[in-house]
Structures are given as structure tokens and as C-alpha cells.
Amino acid sequence: MGPIRPYASFSNNDFREQTAEERYGIPENYLEIEVRNPQFQGSGRNKYVDYEIVCSTNIPAFKLKSSVVRRRYSDFEWFRDALERESTRVNIPSLPGKVFSNRFSDELIELRRSSLERFLQIVAGHPLLQTGSKVLVPFIQDPNFSRDHY
Fold first, then answer.
1. Hey, which end of the chain has fewer CB within 10 Å, N or C?
2. Whole-angstrom Cα distance, residue 51 to residue 61?
3. Is the Cβ–Cβ distance between 74 and 99 less than 8 Å?
4. If pLDDT is split at 50, 70 and 90, which confidence band does 22 have?
5. 4 — pLDDT class (breaks 50, 70, 90)
6. Is 90 exceeded by the pLDDT of residue 6?
7. Helix and strand tally (H, E) in the chain?
8. Is the pLDDT of residue 42 over 80?
């Protein structure tokens, strides 16, 4: 029996530099979702804020490589409920809470925007929802999306 060697030996070929293509090329699968550009709609008691959802992906479950739609907070509430009804195997994250006072302050709108963005990134990135949800892709990509169809 030969001597015990505590460390494996490596040749110079075991560690190579990444090529520029590997480092900076388009990843095999990518999904970028951004919630941005909050805008006031309506007036008086019917005033609300809606948000632009920008999606860029090459994941086959999504119908379009890039899309831009607008959704309001109540749409997100409906969407979350629909996801929960569809999938008992996936824990759907919560949305930022409903606010009743000072709901149109810049700070609150920004906090809600970033929370909605994080929510969509988690939900849209989930492989079981990508393949099993009937509402995920239309909600994120269809400008003519209607709750009545689901």
C-alpha cells in the first residue's frame, strides 16, 4: 500500500479562465421582471395607482420575449388569490398590506412598487407556476387581461 496523500494534486488544466461569451453572454434561461412607472388614474373616490409590468424572458412558458402591461393593486390581489386556488403545492408569498390613510404618498407608492416587483419575481420564477398556472403568463404579459376569463 502506498503512502496516503492528504491533498489531491491538480494540473494547470483543471482551472481555466471563463471566456468572454461565458462571462457576458445571454444566460441559457433568463427572466427579468420590473414593476415601474406608477401612475395615478381616476379622480376623487375612484382615484388609484397602477403600475407598469415589464417582462423580458426566453423561458418557453412565456408567450412573448418582451412585454409591457399595466396593473393596479386590486389586480395583484385577485392574481394572488387565483394562484392560491390553482396551486396547493406552492406557497404563494404575501402582498404588501392594504393602506387606508396617506395611500398616495411618494414613499408608500415606492414601497408598494418595490414589494409588488419582488412578489412578481418570486412567483414568475417558480417552475411549478410557470408550467401549471393558467393565470401567470396572461397576468404578466397580456395587455387585454381580464379577471372575467379566469
1. N
2. 23
3. no
4. low
5. low
6. no
7. 5, 3
8. yes
CATH fold for the domain made of 21-145: PX Domain (3.30.1520)
How far apart CA 124 and CA 145 sit, in angstroms, is 16
DSSP 27: P
Residue 8 has what pLDDT?
A: 47
Cell 389586480 found at? 75
Residue whose entry in the numeric block shows the C-alpha cell 376623487: 44
Query: Is the per-residue pLDDT at 66 higher than 50?
Result: yes
Q: Which one-letter DSSP state was computed for residue 135?
A: S
- Helix (H, G, I), strand (E, B), or coil: what is residue 57? strand
CA distances to 62, 79, 84, 95 from 38, rounded to whole Å, are 24, 18, 26, 17
Q: For residue 96, give the nearest of 136, 31, 43, 38 by alpha carbon.
A: 38
